[in-house]
Amino acid sequence: MTDESLPFFRILAGSRPFENYLSRTFQACFTQSPAFANSALSLLWDKCRLKGDPPDATAWVCDYQPATPNGGKIRPDLRLRPSADNVDGAQHKPIFIESKVGARLGEKQLKNYIDSGTEILVAVTKNWPEVPRTRLETLKVNHLRWQDVSRALSSTSGHRGKDKFLCDAFLEFLEYSNMAYREDITLRQLEDVRRLLSKISYPGRGFIVPGVSFASANSCLSLLQDARRIAYETMPTKPTEVANWGPGYFHVPSGDDPASIDLHALGFEMYPKGKGQYSKIHLLCALYFSAKKKK
């Protein structure tokens, strides 16, 4: 029996290998939707720090598993290039994309692509890369996460018909497949999370919580996780000297009754390693939800 709640592209994927299907789906959306293509090309243009304004993507082509300029057995997942009849395209070099869903982003593989002549290479991953950011810059490899693609598509507006359908369907596909999360969390969604936490902690029975509330809570935790990673990478202290907790859940008890909860919280902490260091300095970042107030 087909689950009617499945996103359009997830239904089409069936049991096929996800990584290949994700690249195929990207190619199809790029080819069929000018809004999708322009959003994706603009994102890559900015990330690769290419000169000038992003060109019109309708004059560009997306190839699946193309051969590299120097040949060889290795093939990246995608290539964006000016179409053959694009008069102005000769000045632009092709952009090669290597997509990673669950596998590690290995330095050896990246070097093989570079040696194969891929002058502009972008690694798109689900997670933060295992190869350090400084090393990627040394190798001249650009990096994006599918979360960045989701953010770029979410910012497109004013589109209708096929453009809107394909952009929305690809976003839903990324979110359902746990490749990305929605960053534009609304006040209503935060209220759903507050209601979820309050009902779970209430000792009575008969309370129902919609499943979408868990998805909103997961988006909050994902957003906090990215905030922690960015803080971790920009700290003046060596990362190996920093301990951290979360993102996760904790609560603040009421002052007059330690057994009752005053505030629910989703957050993380970072602090220097070493005995007694936590009491001296630590960073706490959290979203607090009242356990007593209705809003």
How do you describe this structure in short?
The chain is 40% helix and 20% strand. The chain is of the alpha/beta class.
What labels describe this entry?
alpha/beta; single chain; three-stranded antiparallel sheet; 10 helices; 295 residues; five-stranded mixed sheet
If you had to describe this structure to a student in words, what would you say it looks like?
It is a single chain. Helix 3 crosses helix 6. The chain has 10 helices and 8 strands. Strands 1-2-3-4-5 form a 5-stranded mixed sheet, with helices on both faces. Strands 6-7-8 form a 3-stranded antiparallel sheet. With 295 residues, it is of the alpha/beta class.
Count of β-strands: 8
The coarse overall form would be globular
**Between the first and last Cα atoms, what is the distance in angstroms?**
40 Å
Please state the average pLDDT score: 86
**β content, as a range?**
15-25%
Strand count, sense and barrel status of the largest sheet are: 5 strands, mixed
Name the strands of the widest sheet in spatial order: 1-2-3-4-5
**Contiguous helical run count:** 10
Q: Give the oligomeric state.
A: single chain
- The helix fraction, in percent, is 40-55%
Radius of gyration: 23 Å
Q: What ranges have pLDDT less than 50 throughout 5 or more consecutive residues?
A: none
Order of helices and strands: HHHEEEHEHEHHHHEEHE
The helix/strand class is: alpha/beta
